[in-house]
């Protein structure tokens, strides 16, 4: 399992393109992670000592959690060793390697030997599991009394091309193909969280709008659309595949977005669930 900040093509968990996409997602969306971790901190226990990032991917969430909770150690859990290597390297480059460690585990098989958890964070990872209810029960058992589980999911695929009438139809069909392939499909987690014993302390929707022509957004859009093009190769019509190839050719995406007042919007839902003290 790999972490998706947020909206990853599920069929491409372990390739370098996904790793690039995860990092660019965090870069393009600016202070989003700081906003969400601040929201989580409102419901967390005072002075948490152990924080777990479930499905850590490249570790952007792990590092944001380490910044938010400077007195805590952070455990990044992922099934992909290549992703965890990036977590370790990123933590080292920021002087956080003494507080951030990686644990490889396939959470469809078992929860690793990680207990005494004060905060568990799962961003765009729960929907990938075969049995999310079992994960919630495992996390409940691993949390300290009063510990918090934060679950974050993307509500819709990001829109980059909607401001351009000629490209809006292509993006709409691309999103339809993504939906049919089950990308980021998730449910309201409240019933499963409550069934696992959690008390829901809060739910919140985060809306992030960024300048579509900003350099970071352009890089994110290009990476996102390249991953989509590769993953949906068999689902796209010949005309749509050719149009997307043209859009992704050198400079074309920059010209399209740079000449418009496009705004990229991402909406994410979050649940704060507490293990009763």
Automatic annotation (TrEMBL):
The organism's place on the tree of life at top rank: Bacteria
Pfam families the record matches: Methyltransf_25 (PF13649)
Gene Ontology MF terms: methyltransferase activity
Keywords: Methyltransferase, Transferase
GO biological process, alphabetically ordered: methylation
Classification via InterPro entries: Methyltransf_25 (IPR041698), SAM-dependent_MTases_sf (IPR029063)
Domain Methyltransferase: 51-147
Record's protein name: Class I SAM-dependent methyltransferase
